[in-house]
């Protein structure tokens, strides 16, 4: 098994895995010589820069190629260097190669842990040094987060929601459409009916170690028995989620496709809207007024539409019907949100090794290249609430950096060819 995992991650990650397995912190003094630096916050790149890192944290960003005594040089003079990417909508414990029903019924938590380890390794190798996981079995995701933080597993820094909380029969009610004999007891911790249950489930997530709460306000694409355009939670339930989570220092992410669902979520203080498929200019005006973030997940819509056509066995009949009709609509309105000044973070809702293509889709939709890169770095860090630690190359931030030989400001597909990854001053891929 160990050999197969290493092959899936790629040879460039083997050394980093060995470092993680040791459990030791090997942070040292490093200076990165960057031919072109996109720091995540400046409007233009800077040429010939040095980034000094001590004990995994950036100490200084200096012009020219400087080499202080005792510093190890990482030569990236021929590359574009930028902050490690951040994906605000991942599902680490999902096996994207298996039918959804297999994942729900046949995958025990032990299998989900292995899947999470493999996906985490692939995601960081793609260039993502941080991620927000917005639905997975809570004990599995909290365990994976802690293992990565302790350098026992290779992967991006994680902020986790645990299981997505849904109304009875809504998107996220895993038992919908299944024989009751297949029901798993842990699914009950994801189902809510009424504001009191909402309060209790938020407190449970906090107790379990989750960093945020994910709620399903509308129906979904791949699920049975619900309508993506419909709003399935009552206002008093949404408000109970938001008030309780915020009191505990947790943010709330809302799965919401329909216009009404998005607008209610924004007015009631939800922090981020995931998908927003049927949002329009009026909706985005409400989101902007309430400070709501938009996570458009364009790649997910493309993936689902392709899956419905090429691998119909991967989806239920109801899921195929919905995806065929509206799957490719996901993210079509991102340029409207951008032009209206809505805060946009980067999220893919897809499998590793396809996540960076979301940047290509953003540019194709009309988003300027630098703005797209900032969505995937500093803006995502702001949504997570960790912009003082990740998302930019500035003093005091972790030494999380990636590099590519291309110029993504001219050709965003170069982001699909990340050649160098550093996390906390340690080289993960080169």
Automatic annotation (TrEMBL):
Pfam family, one: Amidohydro_1
Alphabetic keyword roster: Signal
InterPro entries in UniProt: Amidohydro-rel, Metal-dep_hydrolase_composite, Metal_Hydrolase, Metallo-dep_Hydrolase, OTAase-like
Signal peptide: 1-27
GO molecular function, one term: hydrolase activity, acting on carbon-nitrogen (but not peptide) bonds
Ranges for domain Amidohydrolase-related: 80-428
Protein name per the record: Amidohydrolase family protein
Species of origin: Sphingomonas tagetis
